[in-house]
Amino acid sequence: MAQQIRLEVVTPNGAVVSEDVDIVNAPGYGGDFGVLANHAPFLSTIRIGLLTYDQGKKRENLMISGGFCEVSNNKITFLVESAEHGKQIDVDRAMRAKERAEQRLAKATQHDDLINRTRAEAALQRALARMKVSKMT
Amino acid sequence: MASLKEVKNKIAGVKKTAQITKAMNMVASARLRGAQTKMEAFRPYSSKFEEAMSNLSGGANTGSFPLMEVRNVATVEMVIVTSDRGLCGSFNANINKLAEKKMKAYEAEGKKVSIVCVGKKGHQYFKKTGKIRKSYTDIMAAFQMFHAREIAQDIADNFVKGAADKVEVLYGHFKSVAIQRPAVQDMLPVQPVANEQEGAKKAVSGDYIYEPSTEEIMDVMQPLYLNVILYHAMLEVGASEHAARMTAMDNATSACRDIVNNLTLIYNKARQAAVTGELMDIVGGAEALKG
Question: What is A90-136's CATH topology?
Fold first, then answer.
């Protein structure tokens, strides 16, 4: 058995994952990165997107929204606002959210409303990430 | 003395009130459990967050962030977190009173005060002062992180604009089911988190790799940190509210019981008096007939 790293995914509503895993792949600030056991201490912000981790041959997919992650003492901790397993995602809701976000984005772009535009963009990204992750499982 | 029927009606009425307060007590205790679980679920997130913040603020240069800028305080903004509903004893009143006291103290120092209310009770209390900048009501019943985010964002914008130089949060601290105390926490400018465990920090294997730079990470984390503070305050108020309501309703129920006991005593006395009166009449009538 290869060495493993402890993965913890923590959201404001409680811990979502707390397991020993072989590898973690996450969407970091400057691009996706992978973390193996005994990684050097590391701190990065996280974009909205897909987090995967492997346990042996098994791969799990997780949708995460923005936050940051910390690696230290062979433990990787994600602090994100929400995290959902692929099968838990409500695709219809994500679909509706996507449409809503697109409408809002169009409206905000017309009125040159920066705050609403960034918000709508974030909502759109979350919806897209949810849909992508749910398709993978 | 009140008539028999009046007393009887009153007893029935008080009994019904007791039923309601008892039901409210039970509802509050069920809700309290929910609120407490929510609070406990949040704890790992907030403690981890603070840990990361303290790791970061050790290295970063504090002067360069708009949210950390320490200015001469001309305007203080108070974020008053209360519940939306009443009937929970003096819980909201305590928070509001503390807020008013602080407000007066600041004004005596010649500072201006503006208020942001989260929860209806604070809004109602401070409506007349005309100092409310913004109110968020009817969200305390079922709030999520994104509610806190919206409020925190607004407060941060206001601070960066220079409309407020210092921001404090006032909320009801949940000490235990029996005790809730109003509490104050500084929110802005963001204080570098003191690193108490200097020794513990060295246990980390080497220096952190930061991606992007510490400064940029701080830029992302500071607004999040505000969310954490505010969300935490809201969770505390949520739990405290239910705990306070439980106590208040328990007191109300026992007060109702006392009133019913007293009224029953009065009722029985009145009934006795009526019976005696009737007996006297009958005896008197019989005596008269004999004569």
Answer: 1.20.5
